[in-house]
């Protein structure tokens, strides 16, 4: 199943409730998926090496999702074999005092991956049109302005050689509840529990609507949104890897051409 199976058609209204978070496609279990995950991981490693050597383009993975959707897990497992020398991860939480003193895109722009690098944003600048809307800290008119700024920002990055891959990890409300309960009952995971997660859970429907608006307003042919069913972690990892590999393959990365001076040195050896 190709990655475009998860791609949303830009400009169209999306209903998240119509997408099954339990989907596993033609795969039935983790054991069946493992060979595919291994193959895709090896291919992604190869593509990263070429991208790093080429140093003409970069990749930015924007990873969004509800609490407990597995945003950190995707970076650890699906993208975990990327070489750290060419891979940087940035997490966006409540803005600091310094960040709040700048425009809402400032903190994201300064950590966009440089040429040759792959970056992953765990949450992102999209939080400024998601949590802000749900909690009414910005108006709908302000949100519309920010949608336009985001679209222009992404066009700027694209024109600078940044491939943007936007992934929403789609889980069910029941799955989230089970994960929250597990965090409370498992001593090794209790540190992950945040009381604020229960507060945010009460706004589940509002977040779904806010995300649906983001998908409609902030998609393009070159930077579409992907919705990945994430109730099954192994399927989530396979899907993200499939999307990632296809994204890098579409960039036509290539090793730099041979340097004639180096060829002369070789002749002298």
Q: How would you characterize the overall build of this protein?
A:
This protein has eleven helices and five strands; from the N terminus they run αβαβααβααβαααβαα. With 269 residues, it is of the alpha/beta class. Strands 2-3-1-4-5 form a five-stranded parallel beta sheet, sandwiched between helices. The protein starts with 29 loop residues before the first helix and ends with a helix. Pfam families: PPK2 (PF03976). It comes from Paenibacillus phytorum. Residues 30-57 form a coiled coil.
List keywords for this structure.
269 residues; alpha/beta; five-stranded parallel sheet; 5 strands; 46% helix; globular
Quick recap:
With 269 residues, the protein is of the alpha/beta class.
Total strands: 5
Mean pLDDT across every amino acid position: 94
Q: Give helix % range.
A: 40-55%
Low-confidence stretches: none
From the spread of the alpha carbons, the general shape counts as: globular
Order of helices and strands: HEHEHHEHHEHHHEHH
| Biggest pleated sheet | 5 strands, parallel
Trace the largest sheet across and list its strands: 2-3-1-4-5
Distance between the termini: 49 Å
Radius of gyration (Å):
20 Å
* Number of H/I helices: 11
Backbone structural class: alpha/beta
Beta-strand percentage? 5-15%
Keywords: Coiled coil, Kinase, Transferase
Coiled coil: 30-57
InterPro entries: P-loop_NTPase, Polyphosphate_phosphotransfera, PPK2-rel_1, PPK2-related
Organism: Paenibacillus phytorum
């Amino acid at each position: 199943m190709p990655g475009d199976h998860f791609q949303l058609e830009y400009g169209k209204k999306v209903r998240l409730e119509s997408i099954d978070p339990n989907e596993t496609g033609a795969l039935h279990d983790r054991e069946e998926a493992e060979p595919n995950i291994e193959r895709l991981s090896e291919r992604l490693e190869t593509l990263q090496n070429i991208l790093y050597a080429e140093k003409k383009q970069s990749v930015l993975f924007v990873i969004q999702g509800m609490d407990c959707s597995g945003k950190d897990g995707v970076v650890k497992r699906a993208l975990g074999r990327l070489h750290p020398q060419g891979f940087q991860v940035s997490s966006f939480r409540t803005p600091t005092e310094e960040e709040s003193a700048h425009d809402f895109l400032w903190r994201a722009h300064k950590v966009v991956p440089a040429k040759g690098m792959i970056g992953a944003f765990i949450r992102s600048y999209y939080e400024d049109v998601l949590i802000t809307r749900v909690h009414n800290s910005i108006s709908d008119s302000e949100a519309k302005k920010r949608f336009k700024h985001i679209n222009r920002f992404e066009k700027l990055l694209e024109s600078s050689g940044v491939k943007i891959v936007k992934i929403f990890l789609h889980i069910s409300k029941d799955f989230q509840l089970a994960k929250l309960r597990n965090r409370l009952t498992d001593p090794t995971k209790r540190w992950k529990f945040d009381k604020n997660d229960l507060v945010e859970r009460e706004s589940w429907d509002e977040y779904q609507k806010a995300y649906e608006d983001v998908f409609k307003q902030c998609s393009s042919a070159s930077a579409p949104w992907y919705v990945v069913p994430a109730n099954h972690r192994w399927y989530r990892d396979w899907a993200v890897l499939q999307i990632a590999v296809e994204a890098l393959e579409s960039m036509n990365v290539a090793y730099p051409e041979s340097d004639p001076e180096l060829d002369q040195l070789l002749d002298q050896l």
